[in-house]
Amino acid sequence: MSTVSEIDLSGVPPVDAVGIEERAARFQTRSIKREAKVHALKLALSMMDLTTLEGADTPGKVRQLCRKALHLHDALPGLPHVAAVCVYPELVATARAALGDSGIHVAAVATGFPSGQYPLEVRLEDTRRAVEAGADEIDMVISRGRFLAGDLAFVFDEIAATREACGSAHLKVILETGELGSYDAVRRASELAMRAGADFIKTSTGKVQPAATLPVTLVMLEAIRDFHRRTGRQVGMKPAGGIGTAKLAWHYLVMLRETLGEAWMSPAWFRFGASRLANDVLMQLMKQETGAYQAADYFSND
User: Fold this and answer.
1) Which of the two ends of the chain, N or C, has the fewest CB atoms closer than 10 A to its terminal CB?
2) Is residue 302 part of a domain?
3) For residue 207, what are the contacts with CB-CB under 8 A and spacing of at least 6?
4) Would you say 95 and 69 are in contact if contact means Cβ atoms under 8 Å apart?
5) Residue 301 domain-assigned (yes or no)
6) Would 136 be classed as within a structural domain?
């Protein structure tokens, strides 16, 4: 890992905005045959972080979401389980108890989500408490204002300190790309987060628009690719916010495969931050299985 005195992002290449948008658009033209489509749908399910991040969240709502994670659709045998359930830190213990030894991880949006506008020690304590309550993963937000003001050392330090506070839990660093203003800023923030120790980089909180987009995700995937080539360290990716259909999820998977290769095609290295995506994927799987769509009423809204 770098030290603060070594931070220098002058070597980060600029992003060709026209080129990145053209490449991202081409991924949406790919067709997928039936067998590959079923595989992609099941893979997408296995990569989902089912998420509830509302002020009105309750233990009962979290338990209901965990039940959905455990029983995505009992009429379809052989489905994979989702990767994680993502909740606020105060509800980690509830999720941990509900999920038991299922293998589904508990993720917590610690560090003053979604603004990050809290003293660092408060955010670190938030992280430590979430891990002690049973969180396997921490999704942290960076201080976007400090990054945009050029205070790279501060952002590096807060990520590195949070990584230390996570202990054995994985750290996903949320850039909030909709607030960064340019592809160049996204590329630089991705590089900084990876140097500081991020296990994953993540587009968005889902509270700011635009959230995840194919072009901005491609910028981050290319940053991961170049970082891996340079350092040998593999970093995961999580687009979050606005990915609500199976068709869009396929486009992301095609882009992932063609940019980073087979080594990233697993929930260990790629996640979808999702609250609505699971139901559409399940509807598409039922269509492949039976030839007809089930009504939306057959699927839980939570």
Assistant:
1) N
2) no
3) 53, 114, 241
4) no
5) no
6) yes
- What does DSSP assign to residue 25? H
37 as an active site residue: the answer is no
Active site (annotated) includes residue 139: yes
Please tell me which residue in 37, 172, 238, 280 is annotated as part of the active site: 238
H or E stretch covering 154: helix 152-166
Q: Catalytic annotation on 202? A: yes
193-249 confidence digits (pLDDT tens)? 999 999 999 999 989 999 999 999 999 999 999 999 999 999 999 999 989 999 999
Parent domain of 144? 10-296
- Closest by CA to 140, choosing from 115, 168, 105, is 115
- Of the candidates 136, 139, 199, 280, the residue annotated as catalytic is 139
| C-beta atoms surrounding 297 within 10 Å | 6
The CATH number of residue 134's host domain is 3.20.20.70
The tally of domains found in the chain comes to 1
CB 202 within 8 A of CB 175: yes
pLDDT digits (tens, 9 = 90+) for 244-298: 999 999 999 999 999 999 999 999 999 999 878 999 999 998 888 776 666 554 5
Cis peptide upstream of residue 14 (ω within 30 degrees of 0): no
**What's the Cα-to-Cα distance from 236 to each of 47, 208, 271, 276, rounded to whole Å?**
11, 22, 8, 22
The DSSP code for 87 is E
Residue from 74, 78, 30 nearest 253 by CA? 30
Instruction: Please give the structure tokens belonging to residue 16.
Output: 């060709």
Whether the bond into 59 is cis, omega within 30 of 0: no
Is 144 contained in some domain?
yes
Out of 37, 68, 172, 202, the active site residue is 202
Strand ranges, E, within the chain: 48-51, 84-87, 105-108, 137-141, 170-174, 200-202, 236-238, 272-274
